[in-house]
Amino acid sequence: MNGALRMSWSGAAMLLLAGVYFVVPLIATGIFSFWEGGDHYGLSAYINLIHQRELWESLWTSLHLALETIAVTLVFLIPAVFWMHLKAKAFKPLFDVLSVLPFVVPPIALVAGLTALYTGPSWFVGTANFLVVPYVILALPYTYRALDVGMRSLDLKTLTEASQSLGAGWGTLILRVLVPNLTSALAGAALLTIAIVMGEFTFANVLLFNTFAVYINYIGQTSATEAAALTLLSFVITWLAMLGVLLTGRGQAQLGGAR
Predict the structure, then answer these.
(1) CB distance 153 to 33 below 8 Å
(2) Which regions span the lipid bilayer (predicted)?
(3) Residue range 6-29: average pLDDT?
(4) How many CB atoms lie within 10 A of CB 145?
(5) Does domain 46-251 have CATH number 1.10.3720.10?
(6) What is 192-207 written as a DSSP string?
(7) Exposed/middle/buried for residue 40 (C-beta within 10 Å: 0-12, 13-18, 19+)
(8) Residue 236's closest CA among 4, 26, 19?
């Protein structure tokens, strides 16, 4: 009993220290974002940001890049991971290794390789749409893990045999049977991809595209209080995505417990 109480107090102390470590910088950043000079505090930094067209353009660029990245990633990964679990489980170690390669290749080396290898029409390589290629690679470890866990929780062989016995083709099987059973995994993969794309800086900056992260860096060099306000906005977007991942994961856990 005393040991459990001591562990409880030590755990509470660790949580308190962790909370202070993470919360104090956020509070300081929030207070600084309201600073207008001297003893004056107000919303001028936020008002200036709202009226800057570049903010909304960069935010929209990052959002539509995130949606394109999610679409491309899921179109390629869902059939691939499904096929691996159903027909080629021996290749799973190879898939696992390939999925973590983005962690070991430096982003600057990846940018150099992509610009040297990829050529194409100007509407693709000359616009921000080109960033979808490296973003798909960056998101691969997270999207692959989410889909892998989701498909491992399903009896794919039984679902496939039941669907094909009713006359469903492979396309119908994936779209009308597999995808509805992977809602939590797909939501988690999508939200993680949004968080990655919204915070990615290296690729966009080197390739000279004005995304949300690049705009934050620009504001940081020109206006300190507006940079603090924009940092808080970016933090809120990222944490909303993480909260969505936690909620979808909790729903999946409750469903598994009900079984």
Answers:
(1) no
(2) 12-35, 63-82, 94-117, 123-144, 185-208, 228-249
(3) 82
(4) 17
(5) yes
(6) HHHHHHHH--HHHHHT
(7) exposed
(8) 26
